[in-house]
Amino acid sequence: MESKKILIKNGTLITMDPKLGELMSGDLLIVDGRIVDVAHSIPPVDGAETIDASNFLVLPGLVDTHRHTWQSLFRNIASDWSLSHYFTGLHGTISELYTAQDTYAGNLLGTLEALNSGITTMLDWCHNLNSPEHTDAAVDAHFKAGARVVFGHGGGHQHYQVVSHEDHPVEDVRRLRKGRLSSDDGLVTLCLAARGNQFATMDVTVRDWQLAEELDLRISCHFGDGEWGRNRPIAALAEKGMLHNRLTCVHCNSLADDELQMMADAGCTASVAPDIELQMGHGWPATGRLIKAGIKPSLSIDVCSSNGGHLFGTMRAALGTQRGFDNEAARNEGKACVDEMETTCRDVLEFATIRGAEACGLGSKVGSLTPGKLADVILVRTDTFEMIPMNNPIAQFVYNGHPGLVDSVIVNGKFVKRDGKLVGVSFDEIRELAYRSRDGIVSRAKGKNGLKLGGSWLPKPYHAA
């Protein structure tokens, strides 16, 4: 087979590799899907496609560690909802109405949206798997889109009538693990998106952890989102020896400080979604408290039925909120403000890249422009009014970036977006698919719980048993 080589020349390289740092003008060589060299200058390479990146930032692809991708069909319907409205609206109304084809449509739309914004790796926290057919359709969409996806099997709507005594659909997970997602080296891999002891009983949670151990799967689980998190769920798991380094704790807002330390001591990773957490009432984002405990968090979109599906807004929400906390702490010490920024633009970009890769179990494979890693790379335009003159590349990416600046996206050494357009994707076909599924769900709902489009629907708050 002929070797595929791509030589990117003269770009502003933000490698996120502490040994390589930033190169204001540098080159990157990709061979057969891997990064093989990063240098100030790489000589011409026989057979390589050469790309002049003089007007581009070159970065590792971004990593989203927790997204309920199926909800993209109902984007922004929940933008004025609290968490209790969300449980009624999404889990108590919409989720059960999805056909397998609707799950395919939502996952395809949401994954393409992520790729378009420079997210090359995504953990799809899929809790809309109402049957094995829904599961297959969800996975089909990820293979079709071409992103690197960790597919988090999260059960279906029937598992989110909390607090639930219903077991996870274990045979469906086993089927995937023995079949199409048996390898941890594929573009789409598997993890267990468990409800945990906030949303299910401890007996169910123990069985979920046993399933993950049986199938050698990482676990992603919600903790500390709102009042549910005040019952010390992490401490309860710690007492049973159930914290470990293959567990990602999502949100963490209302967890106690000692519970965050328990997570750190066990090697857990964390995922925060600051804009959703602030909106829906989860509690103040735990970013700074996690860092203090020894965990640098990753970032997540969470419910794309509420916010935009790109990490630029998430990075800015994380940064702005934590800087507010830091400055308030300084004022409480009698200072006017912090002496220097305790949370930097580099920090949040690290959360969105290498820390995200680690939370997905992919830290040795992606997350930085390190020779030997898989070639997940994005090129971001700098020849625009938002980006000139280039004075501080990382800060300008974090504060000024948006999906429209993402010119090209490479996953596994293959272009999936180029010259500002997704490769091999018909926007008209995706739009038709999305509207057909969305309209079908609304029609089948017949006004259940007051469902309507346009922005005025406010479901009644959900009250857990």
UniProtKB/TrEMBL annotation:
In the UniProt record, what gene is named as encoding this protein? atzA_1
**Name assigned to this protein:** Atrazine chlorohydrolase
Q: Does the keyword Hydrolase apply?
A: yes
Keyword list (alphabetical) reads: Hydrolase
The EC number(s) attached to this protein equal: 3.8.1.8
UniProt domain Amidohydrolase-related: residue ranges: 57-416
Species this chain originates from: Pararobbsia alpina
- Which EC class does it fall in? hydrolase
PANTHER family in UniProt? AMIDOHYDROLASE-RELATED DOMAIN-CONTAINING PROTEIN (PTHR43794:SF11), AMINOHYDROLASE SSNA-RELATED (PTHR43794)
UniProt signal peptide: none
UniProt GO molecular function: atrazine chlorohydrolase activity; hydrolase activity, acting on carbon-nitrogen (but not peptide) bonds
